[in-house]
Amino acid sequence: MLAAADPREAIGLISRLTPEVVVLLFDGSAARLAAVQDIMSRQPTPILLLRAPGVSSEAAARGLASGAVDEVAMPARDDAEALAALRGATGAAPRPPA
Asked: Contact at 8 Å (CB) between 7 and 33?
């Protein structure tokens, strides 16, 4: 699993590494919408929007309309069950307890 803080950096990583799925922390901004559109036009890859706290379902719907395949609310850090389900849904290896 790799992380990129900037949408443009993410697009570069996706082009180079061709992942099976992209999980995008979605804040509803125009930059994140543009990132979804750019990824889908340059390197079509399934995108799961991880909806940041405070981001409405309506904003996430715009991300889906831009090409993302699904969206989920970002689980709380202390919600181990939800975090495990998210890791399982994305195919990420489980992390050892901290």
From this structure: no
Dihedrals φ, ψ of 33, to 5°?
A: -60, -45
Q: CA torsion angle for 58, 32, 36, 86 (degrees, to 10)?
A: -70
**51: how many CB neighbours lie within 10 A of its CB?**
20
Residue with tokens 């495990």: 84
pLDDT band at 96 (very low <50, low <70, confident <90, very high): very low
* Dihedral over alpha carbons 49, 52, 54, 60 (to 10 degrees): -10
Question: Quick check: pTM over 0.85?
Answer: no
Residue 77 burial (CB < 10 Å; 0-12/13-18/19+)? exposed
Model pLDDT for residues 24-63, shown as the tens digit of each residue? 889 999 989 999 999 999 889 999 999 999 999 899 999 9
